[in-house]
């Protein structure tokens, strides 16, 4: 009898311990939303504590499952909810660190929830809030799969989500059914827009290609002592009103963030499925050894700035002007010695009505940021602002203070050229790449919704060229042959850049800013893809007029680079290989 009481008391203590860990984990998780979104050191310790508690909770429910099932009434959806929170932790840690390995970890947990059908009986619980959790899980899993380019799985998940939304709507007739219908339409539209050009297997099934940087796709470079800078901080801003988007990621943001990441490595960590779902012994906050650091560890804070695979980046969807400037200032503050800051902005233009501008910083217009109010002013903003004094507008002059440090700016807008006059008051390296301000009428509607042509060139040059030549699908063997021409172009352009003489004034020379940025793999890739874009659009018959070509400041040399016959010849060869030679101006016949 005493033994029985002892066992019951022991079980009661286990249940109380589980309840304590569960409540503690929820408290810490809910506190994540109160952490500052910018900066590095302010939030890492909190994330480390949260990881630790969830690790203990997960191990605890594994070790004492039978007791928790019988004495606490633990249900499978509750296990799924814990796993979902761990997946969210990894995803948000990816967002804060830019390390794609954490994205893989999030995927492992989300996939395990689906594989083990933790939410399969959610509809039978007669709880609409539980069904909402299930729908949110699907939406989050889809985002992670999109970022990892698991498109076949994305389509399966969308089909399942549609079925779940129908079941949710039929069973509960909820007030938010229109919101979930909108979510479904958004993701379907995003998938359609993302597939600009289909690369096909021999059996005509599409192949999903990754466009993250890898050792095979990193442009070659003849190193020089002038190449001193590395990309450390990135701000990716998406404010284009009509563009396809999902989960606060516009198509342009989606493409650019992948362009500025390295291909993730296939590694298994302590809280991955193989360990986390079957009994692991280590806390992710204490046992990660890889160079991208440990959640909450001192090593991450001290060393990750210099040794991580990817530059740190912020993603801002339609920010207010104050948010944009705060995040810019944070990136500026976090720059280590020898580091460079990149600002990428995809936005609609705010246009000036001043006929004779004297102040190029504020009288030429700028870029629309957000329709949201800051709460400290009375100004709203229409998508296509007409006033050059709009409150929610980023003007070139707003960026002047940040040019105290090396800065690389990419502007994708129908008012991009107003950013070509940013002065170098502080003598620091500064490059501005500007999109064409117009595209041929045949592309205008699609580009407005499916994502910018300029960003597509920076993301996948061959996809962009196929798109402007109306090539909708390409067999994989043909794609690889054409990609070899693109690689040849990039190699030749890299050689021409490094052999240009350096000068900041004379024509025919290359500005020293380009050379200083050229040693960084990501910035070199962007510069060379910009050259590809410029050469292709200059030779394409459909892009006539200076507003249909990109610009850069300082200007890149024409004869020695942009109009070099070797580069033009490669484009003609590529066009011939794609059987689209007629889209391009007359030039030398290609072999």
Question: Secondary-structure blueprint of this entry?
Answer:
Elements: H1 2-31, H2 41-63, H3 65-72, H4 76-97, H5 100-115, H6 128-147, H7 151-172, H8 177-194, E1 198-200, E2 206-207, E3 230-238, E4 245-246, E5 249-250, H9 251-259, H10 273-276, H11 284-287, H12 298-307, E6 312-317, H13 321-334, E7 339-346, E8 349-351, E9 365-368, E10 393-394, E11 407-412, E12 430-434, H14 441-450, H15 453-459, H16 461-468, E13 473-475, H17 476-499, H18 512-517, H19 521-539, E14 551-553, H20 558-562, H21 565-577
Parallel strand pairs: 1-13, 3-6, 3-7, 7-11, 11-12
Antiparallel strand pairs: 1-2, 4-5, 8-9, 9-10, 12-14
Helix pairs in contact: 1-2, 1-3, 2-4, 4-5, 4-6, 5-6, 6-7, 7-8, 9-15, 15-16, 15-19, 17-19, 17-21
Mean pLDDT across residues: 86
| Rg from alpha-carbon coordinates | 26 Å
Helix content: 40-55%
Structural class: alpha/beta
- Separate helix tally: 21
Q: How big a fraction of the residues is strand?
A: 5-15%
Structure description:
- This protein has 21 helices and 14 strands.
- Mean pLDDT is 86; it is low at 268-307 and 373-388.
- β1 and β2 (206-207) form a beta hairpin.
- Helices cover 49% and strands 10% of the residues.
- The protein starts with a helix and ends in a 14-residue tail after the last helix.
- The chain has helices spanning 2-31, 41-63, 65-72, 76-97, 100-115, 128-147, 151-172, 177-194, 251-259, 273-276, 284-287, 298-307, 321-334, 441-450, 453-459, 461-468, 476-499, 512-517, 521-539, 558-562, 565-577, and strands spanning 198-200, 206-207, 230-238, 245-246, 249-250, 312-317, 339-346, 349-351, 365-368, 393-394, 407-412, 430-434, 473-475, 551-553.
- A 6-stranded mixed beta sheet has the order 6-3-7-11-12-14, sandwiched between helices. It has a 3-stranded mixed beta sheet with strand order 2-1-13. Strands 8-9-10 form a 3-stranded antiparallel beta sheet, with no helix packed on it.
- The protein has 591 residues and is an alpha/beta fold.
């Amino acid at each position: 009898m005493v033994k029985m009481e002892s066992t019951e008391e022991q079980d009661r203590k286990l249940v109380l311990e589980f309840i304590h860990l569960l409540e503690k984990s929820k408290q810490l998780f809910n506190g994540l939303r109160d952490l500052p979104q910018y900066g590095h050191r302010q939030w890492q310790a909190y994330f480390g504590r949260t990881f630790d508690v969830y690790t203990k909770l997960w191990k605890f429910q594994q070790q004492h499952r039978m007791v928790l099932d019988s004495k606490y009434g633990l249900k499978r959806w509750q296990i799924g909810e814990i796993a979902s929170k761990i997946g969210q932790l990894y995803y948000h840690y990816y967002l804060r660190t830019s390390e794609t390995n954490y994205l893989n970890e999030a995927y492992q947990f989300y996939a395990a929830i689906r594989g083990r059908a933790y939410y399969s009986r959610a509809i039978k619980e007669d709880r609409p809030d539980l069904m909402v959790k299930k729908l949110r899980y699907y939406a989050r899993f889809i985002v992670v799969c999109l970022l990892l380019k698991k498109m076949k799985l994305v389509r399966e998940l969308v089909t399942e989500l549609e079925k779940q939304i129908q079941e949710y709507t039929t069973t509960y007739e909820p007030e938010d059914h229109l919101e979930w219908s909108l979510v479904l339409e958004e993701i379907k539209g995003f998938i359609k827009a993302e597939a600009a050009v289909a690369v096909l297997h021999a059996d005509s099934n599409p192949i999903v290609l990754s466009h993250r940087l890898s050792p095979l796709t990193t442009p070659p470079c003849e190193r020089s002592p002038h190449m001193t800078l590395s990309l450390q901080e990135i701000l990716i801003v998406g404010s284009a009103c009509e563009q396809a988007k999902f989960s606060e990621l516009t198509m342009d943001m989606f493409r650019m963030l992948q362009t500025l990441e390295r291909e993730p490595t296939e590694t298994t960590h302590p809280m991955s499925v193989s360990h986390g779902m079957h009994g692991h012994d280590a806390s992710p906050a204490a046992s990660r050894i890889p160079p991208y650091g440990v959640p909450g560890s001192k090593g991450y804070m001290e060393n990750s700035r210099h040794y991580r695979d990817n530059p740190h980046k912020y993603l801002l969807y339609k920010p207010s002007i104050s948010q944009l400037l705060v995040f810019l200032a944070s990136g500026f503050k976090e720059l280590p010695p020898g580091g460079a800051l990149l600002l990428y902005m995809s936005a609609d233009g705010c246009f000036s009505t001043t006929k004779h501008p004297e102040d190029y910083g504020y009288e030429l217009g700028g870029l629309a940021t957000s329709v949201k109010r800051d709460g400290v002013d009375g100004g709203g903003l229409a998508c296509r602002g007409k006033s050059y004094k709009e409150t929610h507008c980023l003007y070139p002059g707003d960026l002047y203070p940040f040019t105290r440090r090396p800065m690389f700016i990419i502007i994708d807008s129908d008012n991009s050229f107003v950013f070509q006059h940013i002065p170098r008051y502080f003598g620091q390296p500064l490059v501005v790449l500007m999109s064409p301000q117009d595209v041929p009428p045949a592309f205008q509607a699609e580009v407005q919704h499916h994502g910018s042509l300029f960003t597509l060139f920076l993301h996948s040059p061959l996809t962009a060229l196929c798109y402007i030549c109306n090539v909708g699908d390409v067999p994989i063997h043909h794609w690889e042959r054409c990609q070899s021409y693109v690689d040849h172009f990039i190699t030749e352009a890299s050689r021409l850049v490094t052999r240009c003489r350096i000068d900041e004034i004379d024509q025919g020379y290359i500005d020293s800013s380009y050379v200083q940025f050229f040693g960084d793999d990501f910035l070199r890739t962007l510069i060379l893809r910009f050259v590809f874009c410029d050469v292709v659009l200059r030779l394409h018959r459909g892009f006539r007029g200076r507003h249909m070509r990109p610009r850069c400041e300082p200007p890149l040399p024409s004869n020695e680079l942009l109009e070099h016959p070797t580069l033009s010849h490669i484009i003609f060869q590529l066009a011939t290989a794609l059987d689209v030679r007629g889209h391009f101006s007359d030039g030398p016949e290609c072999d």
